[in-house]
Amino acid sequence: MLAAVAGGLGWLLLSFAGNRGGVEPWTGEGQAGSTLEFFVEKDGSTLTRSEVEQLPADAWRRWTGAGHYTGGFGTVLWARVTLRNAEPQARAGVLADVDFFADRVVAWVVTNAEVEKRVGVNALHLISGEGVAAGKKAVPGRAVAFPVSVPARGEQVVYLRAEDFYRPVFQLEWWPDATAYHAAKTRGLIAEAVYFGGLLALLGYNVLLWVRLRLADIGYYAAYLGTGATFMVLARAWGLEVGATLGSPGLETALTVAMALSGFFLACFARAFLELKQRCRRGDRIVGWLAVMMAGLALGALSTPWIKSAFWLPATVAGIGVTHAGLLVLALVAWRTGAKQARFFVLSFGCLFAGSLPLVAVRLWMLEAKNAALMGLMIGSALEMLLLSLAVADRFATAQREKAAAQALLIEEAEQRRMIEAAYADELELEVAERTRELEAANTDKDRMLIALGHDLRSPLAALTQRAEQLRGGSRAPTPETAGAVLGEFSGDVAGAGRQMLLLIEDIVLWARLRTGAQPASSAHPVSGLVTPVVKLHRPLAERRGVALTADVPAALEAWTDLVLAQTMVRNLVGNAVKFARSRVEVIARAEAEAVRITVRDDGPGLPPAVLARLRGEASAAGDNGEGGGMGLRLSQEIGATLGARIDAGSCPAAGGTELSVILPATDRATEEAIL
Question: How far apart are alpha carbons 252 and 255 in whole angstroms?
Fold first, then answer.
């Protein structure tokens, strides 16, 4: 993961943001192309631009583009830039210094006679710099930049005057295409925004950890992150980018104080995190001295505005280097004494030192690529902060595990005491609760069966009573001629109602047997012997209602079941189907793998959704209260549970009606036939 982060940061800051395509190099003596010359105005001199223009040629020093050009303390640095364009079209570019930011830079773009006549001046006056308000800059942003147009196959002369609290520095670049300059600037801003966004996320995470845990080492690390991020923001002049005005010596003072405080908080963090007081007392004293040194540097840096010297900034850089080196040695010692988390310090400081090497080289040997060196430092510092954040996260995880383990131990001990003290009471309470649930379930089931029983008894008795009242008087009373036929029809109705109530009584007796725990007597039975009597029983009722009742049962099909119980199941399903069918009822038996499926299909209105949900084993919010189901279906469910059978329920939306299936265990022979 570390390699991936390092690679991503390297690409983002060095490749994506470091792409300088579009810069035109300066040429040396005797070569064609744009040239750059410098003149240092001594302290106390106040030359005007016109006077500088009259200087002899040997007063100017030609610059070949290697390194940067620096004036002394208290001096003014002048630059004369001659931009040449060999192209047939004019160039609108930007003359910029993207690495060094003087307090104030004034530019004069010398005009030709035609422009001078039009605008009334012989040079356009532009300003920029760290100490210049954003609204007055020629090009907004942190870089010293000026828009310059070069005529086709011509040249343009620009004079620059730089002043700084310490000493002015120039490393100018010529971007012939202003679009390329602004694109490079945008890439840099995007890359740095991602970088600082990551630092802000790390800072927020560690602040939240500190707020939650209130551990001193996490608090010190959050402070180190905050001051370190502040230093990087100031070093990259992000205040200037958003419109703030901060020149020398204020910028150097803030930079130095932020860097020194970051070293102070880092030393305090390492001292607490590595537990040096317990592991290495001598190391603890050394880190204490380092913290005092960095605090002293922070206080000393506050005097920067009153001394015209850059002493405190390099002194603080040296102090931060000594602090990191000392902490690296102590982290190695702590690692050897068993502090596993010290490995994060070793890796993080190694990344920081590796990232700072390019900047050290630039400072010592005055090399170019200051911007790239700063990017390397940013990468190293980001990896350092990430690794130290991982150390803090590891510490947090360890603390959480220890806390959870301690809490678990306390809970376990408390639970054991509670279990010992309340063992008998708990057992009695569980038994009472179980019996209560059983009684409630039995009462609920009894109430439902009584509702279903009342529904099944009410229907035939109501029909029979209504028929008798019609025969006793009224418009449908029989005449002497029709009395015989009506009496026969009424006798059939009485016989049907009686048969229906007898079957219902048999169902009640069977239900009572099941409730007492009677076990089924299962054996192999032909399915035809199970279905055929049921069909014969219900055929008269079906014929009276005009319903075609058919059966399709293979002769060799057998099921392993209790004949009486299984026949009762099928009888109730068929009776329910005949009662609600419009024109047909089909009884179909088929062998399946290890089972026999007996399906009863009708073309009636279908069962209510609540009944279907109960037959499928689904929950019903309102319940069916016995409507549409009756005692027969409820009894069939209980028989199925006793026999180990299953009832599949479903409506037939295409043809209408309902399809109910009883799945019974098959005998071995039936299973073999189903497989074949």
Answer: 5
High-pLDDT (> 70) share of the chain, %: 73
Query: pLDDT band at residue 626, thresholds of 50, 70 and 90?
Result: very low
For residues 92 and 178, the answer to whether their CB atoms sit within 8 Å is yes
CATH code linked to domain 185-408: 1.20.1070
Q: Is the pLDDT score of 490 beyond 80?
A: no
Q: Long-range contacts for 483-491 (Cβ within 8 Å, ≥24 apart)?
A: none
Least confident of 22-26, 78-82, 266-270: 22-26
Q: Which CATH class is domain 23-176?
A: mainly beta
Contact 626, 448 (CB under 8 A): yes
Quick one: pLDDT band at residue 197, thresholds 50, 70, 90? confident
437-472+486-675 is a CATH 3.40.190.10 domain:
no
Tokens matching residue 20: 């300088």
Residues in CB range of 316: below 8 A, 6 or more apart: 256, 259, 260, 263, 294, 297, 298, 301
Nearest to 248 by CA among 105, 368, 377, 69: 105
Considering the chain, tell me which residue range(s) the CATH 3.30.565.10 domain(s) occupy: 437-472+486-675
Give me Rg for the CA atoms of the chain. Answer: 49
Alpha helices, DSSP H, located in 22-122:
49-53, 113-119
